[in-house]
Amino acid sequence: MYGEFRALKTTRDGAILTVAISNPQSRNAINATLHAELPRLFTTVSRDQDTRVVVLTGDPAGGAFCAGGDFKWFEETARDSVSFNRIMQDGRDIVRNLLDIPQPVIAMINGAAIGLGATIALHCDLSYIDEAAVIADPHVGVGVVAGDGGAVIWPLLIGPNRAKEFLMTGDPIRGRDAAGMGLVNHAVPAEELREVTYAMAHRLATGPRLAVEWTKRAVNLSIQRLATGVLTASMALEGLTFRTADHDEAVRAFHAKEKPRFGRAP
């Protein structure tokens, strides 16, 4: 069932399916393959009656949970309007399909979760993080709106004003601080992360299936309604900021390996 996926590594322990985001050459950043495979993965899981719990993590070889979108791939692809529209559709489907699958999904954040990586982790039903890992949504650092779902989930988890602080600055948050403010469920030492995460996975997998799944469904109804409106608007705003002078400056600085100097161009 999962053999079609090239950049998502799956392993099974009874009713628990582990999925590792795998692009180790780029710290598990989301490239073209992963961007297309993630929405299909969640649709596939929803039809998998043998899976009762999903643990989503990063390939350990990548040294991160997910370092966000592959900037070079996105810049090259987004120049074409048809390809850009496909990227936006897949981006919406990543969030929508993740929210829609019946089985609980636990994020085991075993390293940095940045940008889209943070969005994916935070839209999971439960999240466990290495207390030394960082989580951040630095879209503003490249002159664009946090349109891939950050504007949906961060305010729900930590409140609008605190969310705006981190989304408008892109500042990183250490795992233990993220847990303290309620952005993630639990932060634990790296050597305990797997044991603690899978203890919860086994507990859910051996619980009353429909009660667990329908409780998730009940809670997610309000998140899905919010996501329907916010995702459409925030992605449109993100698309507009790709055409701004500040984003052009971010691209220039990226290639020049310099810090961008925003606000100088009209």
* Major sheet: arrangement of strands: 1-2-3-4-6-9
CATH architecture: Alpha-Beta Complex
N-to-C terminal Cα separation, in Å? Answer: 52 Å
CATH superfamily: 2-enoyl-CoA Hydratase, Chain A, domain 1
Number of domains: 1
Q: What share of residues is helical?
A: 40-55%
Whole-angstrom Rg: 18 Å
Looking at the structure, the CATH topology is 2-enoyl-CoA Hydratase, Chain A, domain 1
Count every helix, treating DSSP H or I runs of 4 or more residues as helices: 10
Uncertain stretches of 5 or more adjacent residues: none
H-E order? EEHEHHEEHEEHHEHEHHH
* Number of E strands: 9
> Briefly, what CATH class?
Alpha Beta
Tell me, briefly, the overall form. globular
Major sheet characteristics: 6 strands, mixed
Structural class: alpha/beta
Mean pLDDT: 94
